[in-house]
Records
---
Amino acid sequence: MNVPIVDKPSSDLTDEAVDTFYSCAVCQSISPGHLCIVSPEHPGQCGVYTWQSCRAGYAADLIGPYQPVPKGRLLDRRCGQWQGVNEAVLIASGGKTEKINLYSLIDHPATTCNQCEAIAAVLPKCNGFMVVSRDCHGMTPAGMTFQELRRYIGYGASTPGFVGHSKKAVTGRKFLAADGGLLRLVWMPSKLKKEIGDSLQQRAAELGVPDLSDRIADETMGVTEEAILPYLKKK
């Protein structure tokens, strides 16, 4: 199979611009049934692999852990669902996961890897969602720490309301776009907010909400939904 050459840097590529995504099976030994689908706008959950690196990995080793996934027929543009992706996930999960949406954590979210860099979780009382990264060890408004969340969802299951992802994904244009995207993010640890601060500010400007970072609560405002609600209402 010939691997197409795409000259644009990965940051400029969109999912619509390519016909093929890639799967990464590096973590299947610890997350059976999980298959990471990597697209230009949906990087690997571990934070290491991008569409470009998976493409290069496949070119170097045609039978390695990175394999091409032809997108196939578009089934849901808003949620990010393709027939070819569903077929790949169905096989990898042994028939347990029939379909996934790359842009949603509510409606058939992607399966989650045990080595995911961050996790998003719905906060129903706050009408939004939170994000916590694996280097943050405290309690979250979801009622669990990152480690507890990872044990709950991180072994290859598709769990509505929860999904693993990379830190970089948070400021991507397609990040949970079907659920409102970055504008529905209501809580993240201050450490993560600082780490992705520059890209968060840039994305906020694109969205026309320059004070978006200040609108997102962190652990200094509270670690329960009830505690952060007053802050969110002020913003």
---
Amino acid sequence: RMRTLAWLGIASLCLGAAWAVPDKEERRKAEKLKADLALYEHVDLDNYDLTLDNYGEILDLSNYEDLYDYSDLAPKIEVGTLAPRPKDPAALPNLGTTAETPKLQPVTTAGPVHPAPIPTQGECRPLALPSCLLCLCIGTSVYCDDADLEHIPPLPPETTYLYARFNRISAIRASDFTGLKKLKRIDLTSNFISWADVDAFRLLPSLQELILPENRLTALPELPRSIIRLDARLNRIPSTGLQPEAFRDLKQLQFLHLSDNQLDHIPAPLPKSLRSLHLQNNNIQTMHEDTFCDSQDHSQIRRALEDIRLDGNPINLSLFPNAYFCLPRLPTGRFF
């Protein structure tokens, strides 16, 4: 019986302690609520206007830290262990000394240093040095524009394109282009050229473009069969200045521009490869019916020859109605 009473006493004590904990927690919350209400007792809720000017008067924050307890949010500092100090002090690194700066060794040379050679410009070889001093050599192109030249300078043997525009060159000699087997284009626009040797261009096997406008030529030399474009506008070439059938054997000729000269007839026969024929502003007065088309072959069609200019000539194109049947387009000129 005594043991039973003892167990009952212990149970009652445990229940009392359990009931006491909630009561204590409730009392703490009630006290905190009273403190919060006391903080705002002086605030007039009927006339409440919080601004930056009266913020300090309405809310007293002087004891802000006392009102709220943030002890539970304080970070916990864990203390670890430090590395043991070595028994031998000599094992510690000496932080008072720095690594010695290596000394620079003087540069020694076995002999004098020679400057690097200056590369020559373009592909100009020693034999062509004069032309590359007077002109600009870039690759296989030689530019001699506006250089006040009176004759064509010696050219590198690899020259492919020559530009000597706006100079004072007055003549073209046969020796000017000797040995230039790769020369494809010659542009001598706007010089004072009045004559050229007969063989000045004939022996150039690769020549495709010969540009000679704005000069004083009165005759054209013989041309190589490789020529594709001939531009001799704005010269003084009469029909007698062209060799008989000068263009018949030029099977690759596509552009023949002889405008603004003194021609009095169309230089026939014309090669079938021709695409553009400019003869405007000459003195052409008549033509043959076979100038462009074969009058014996009415099935002939020259599809390539699409650009013929005869404007600025006194010829009346309407007088030759059978001269254009093979052309894809009528020539440009006067038809009345």
---
Amino acid sequence: MTVLQCLRSMLGPGVVTLLLTSSIALLSPLAAQQPAAPVGAYDASPYLGEIRNAVLYGDIWERPQLSARDRSLVTVAVNQALYATNELRIHIGRALDNGVTQSEIGELIGHVLWYSGFPTGVNAARVAAEVFAERGLPESPPGSSPRVANLDDHLFPGVFPATPYVADLLDVLYAETWERPELSPRDRSLITVAVNTALYATGEVRVHVGRALNNGVTQEEISELITHVTFYSGFPTGVNAARVAAEVFEQRGLPMPDSRFPGAPYLDTLISGLVYGDTWPRSGLSPRDRSLITIAMTQAAYQTDQLRVHVGRGLDNGITPEELSEMMAQVTLYSGFPSGVNGSRVLAEVLQARGIPLPN
């Protein structure tokens, strides 16, 4: 049990506030194990630096439910998928330190690009090459397997009749990429659940949580993976994946913990303590402004369930329907009309459920 877990069990979730204000003293034994933050990275937001040191590296990375190697695998995968170049560079190095081989990193990048797009793979390949060169490693990973798939054997006949080439690509993904020996099926499942969690790809999360269980990933490991990824892709993605994972676990008759988020129960502690117990009450922004920001982010990211929750919270925090309508129009110009149409629909549903007239 980590330092934060012990204190939470004794004092409750609200102890996060105390921990963050005294994180250096409490977690100094762990601080030496943390990767050095880029110089000046947290000068403009010291509270973010405190969360990084006390919670992300002092608590999450130290939890025993996933090995350091597994955490590195999923962290590299998520940062590739999110095109987070600076973090990707840091975590490729950390992955090497945690026992992930050069060949496995190369294979990971090739696997993830199927789920997050080729631009993310090209970027990650460039960053990995730079890290390998800095460490004096060979330019190309040794022993890469040749292509093995017979594309005349279709795994998904008739699945995509309107776009048959998509079915061909799916054959390559499952008949070739998933079968390559450089990563085990278990590792590929860890990576794939992590990436789809980060991308809020609900249907794919559902498919791959089930596949992960089939490939030997335990229920506890899946729950911990979702919690870990949350710190790299945001709490809405973790809440969504936890909901989906819980549905899969229940369908399989697995035991369900008593938690608001049985698919990732530690999220309950983090959300009660870190998000709503510590961050939302801080005086630097009013609750109204925090609601504006949160609604804007969840609209832009097309996170419909969280958008619905926070539109309601925004109304409770004093934002008027007219302001919400105008804000969504503003956000649409930066995130695209699909997000605006979705946001407008959600706003109308929340207002109607509360008996509030729609804005003119």
---
Amino acid sequence: MMVRTAKPEDCPAVNDLMVSLIEEIYGRESEEVRRALKANFTAEALKELCVEKQAILYVVEVEGRVVAFLFGWFFRYVFTIYWIYSLKEFRGKGVVKALLGHAEAELLAKGCWKLEMYAYAENNRFLDFAAKLGFSNGVLIEKSMFGFKVQNIYKVIAEPDAEKRETRIKIVGEAGQGVKLLSYTLGQVLSQLGHEVSLNLAYDASVRGGTISADLIYSSKLIENPIIDEADILIKFTRTRDWFPAKTLVIDESMCQEESFECSIQSRQGTLYGFGDVAVSLFGSKIYINMIALGRILRYIGINILLLNIKDILPERALEKNLEAIKYGFSYRDDV
């Protein structure tokens, strides 16, 4: 038995395992649920996920055959396991334990302090097994996008300092650009996933249509300082000479051209997510750029929008369009 990082040629085998996982674990759910899961985690969707910078995929190989896999997302020193699965004939032989042990050792060397999963709450057998491997129960999500319960489980593998525990997001825009809705919705999502959240809004009332900024911090513990001096993620919608120090992700106002309503997310490592004029062409107004951006940010930080019923968070006004804009930004597929 060999545990290793997956190669591109492993994709067909992992895809077959993913289909089997969805059929087995979600067998009690409707065909609609299984189709949506397959649409977002198999075939082309799986290929797209695997090339994302934060994505990590491990496989177990036995006599040249891929018999198990683990797929997850590594962001800000936390590894979120999306899927872990083994063929039935290899269960009880230490395959999953070996997968988790391999992942833990590699990620610990990268500064990771916590492994977490959002597991199907009806899968008591797996939850009991995870507890034996050192995982503890976190928040219980009563209602996911499809209505079933999801249980967060986690394992602390190293003691983190404040820098690792906290993620700081700075959002800067102008009145009318939806900064308040974007930051409030993001804060609600993070809170429902069990994080401590701090949100501070500041307005420049000196000029009409002045700037508005939001300092959003989420952490595994109480937040002592709610003011951001340096952001991990900067979202900047407004044209201003003021710059704010940020480490990783930027929506730069120079890419948000008023004429075409273009807006992109660019990381300092060169990653570029383009919105183009989709806010207008697909949703009829530039005001939906904020919800497209929210979808992109959620994907970037490793939060699967299937975990929550976001409809319960969004305001009733323009509910469906806001939801569709988030899905678009996240690259969510409604069906295969």
